[in-house]
Predict the structure.
Amino acid sequence: MRINKYLSDAGAASRRTSDKLIEECRVKINGKPAEIGQNVKDGDVVTLDGVKLNPTKKYVYLMFNKPKGCICSKNDEKGRKTIYDYIDFKERLVSVGRLDYDSEGLLILTNDGALVNYLTHPSNEIPKMYHVKVEGEVQESDLAVLRAGVVIDGVKTSRAKLKLLEFKENISRFEMTIYEGRNRQIKKMFQTVGKEVVFLKRVAVGDLRLGGLSRGGYRELTDAEVNYLKKL
């Protein structure tokens, strides 16, 4: 088995991220730094940051309602709370995509590396819906620009769906769907038209919706929901 697939099956990271971990010499096979493309044989001991990994025998799929005030990493040098402080599972789970410290909403967590890779790969254009609040009124001409895609960090974003739900007390409330997942993408998109996002919540991935799950709460996905995500 290729080392990146081994890491993926162990729930350590997606295959793409696994290659990065290997390049950073954080992965070892029998005590020696692993190489990209290297095969893992029966009896080999694979470690990540000194922790032994084993291929996953049972896959876990969770929906988590991330609250504000926590990050998606497992550890934080600033000592901030992480999403893993809310989740009581012995399996090593990774989040499918991320939400910023001050953003909230739907996160999928799993130890199925193949699904993580599928849902996060930009070419698959997985739709993700958000509720967005923006300070001030946003002109229709600016909305047209955002729907068509804007340049952030030197690269143009893909198309977006954007529907104004309400303008009240100098706050514009939108329903927005994007098909990629760059770092702070929605906030940066609105910044290109001179607007600041003051609230951001992911409410759906495809047709899988957050529903009434409480902030900081989580539940296991049903078999039907897992099969749906694999076919998105």
Observations:
- The mean pLDDT is 92.
